[in-house]
Amino acid sequence: MLNRLEMLRIFIATAEASSFKEAAARLGISPQAVTRAIKELEQLQGELLFHRNTRNMRITSFGETLAGQARVSVGALDELFLRDKAEADFESSGLVRVAAPVGLGRLRLLDVLTALAVEHPRITFDLHLSDQHSDVVDEKIDIGVRFGFMRDNRFVARRVTSQRFHVVGTPDLIRQVGAPQDIGQLDTLPTTAFLDASTGRAWPWLFKGGIQCNPARPRFTVNDGEAECRAVLAGLAFAQMPSFLAEPYMASGELVPVLAELEPEPWDIYVYRPQKGPVPARIRLVHDRLVAALAGTSGVSGTEAAASP
Fold first, then answer.
1. Whole-prediction pTM value?
2. Which CATH number fits domain 165-262: 3.90.1300.10, 3.40.190.10, 3.40.50.261, 3.40.50.20?
3. What is the pLDDT of residues 46-55, one digit of tens each?
4. At CA 9, angle to CA 140 and CA 37, rounded to 5?
5. Which residues lie across from 169 on neighbouring strands?
């Protein structure tokens, strides 16, 4: 029989992983050792801890409760052997799951998280990049970043900055085909189309007063913001892009804004976390660093509150 403390450590790691194989990799043991530990613990408890089949596994309600109790108990025991810096290091340890839009995650968040991983080697990260809203509960997301409105009162959300949307093209493209003078002229010019992965249709272009349109002549269709940006920089088409992608190239003169007077209202960017009691030190640390990185030097002061409908 396994040492019971080690059994609990394996169980906690498995509860935080998506599979027995992932838990084994994090612990540096074999998947068979994880399976044996879970089976022994289930026998001791007389309860099923995970629903599992050949494709996936999901923790049971009893397992969730036991995992919470185990974290407290194992943490308390570990604290008996920690002093000063070692104790502080323990508090900033464990898994942090982060969800963010693809382009924003790659350009603004990835460097922050890798720097944190170097500074705090006992923190592990699970970064989920998607332009679709993540299911925070099912995916057990600890911290999320989102464009637009936050209307779910399950979250504590902090507005950190806002993003404008620019219609842009290269100077060469404008010399060749001219700049659009109104929204209707976009139908006569080469444009990009950015696909919504959930519907397979192009996202509409947004303009002042709530006007939306889909230009009629997309020359370059894509589902990745950075790929779209590269196509625009190559002079293939006009595109509507968020400021975090467009503005560095606007500042250098590589891209020129058009239809600026018709820009829509900026979209807010929020950093949010589920409302679930006390916030562990590692979650506070990552949350605060992401807020600082997204706010940048713009002087935007975010406010934190429960998101409400």
1. 0.62
2. 3.40.190.10
3. 999 999 877 7
4. 100
5. 256
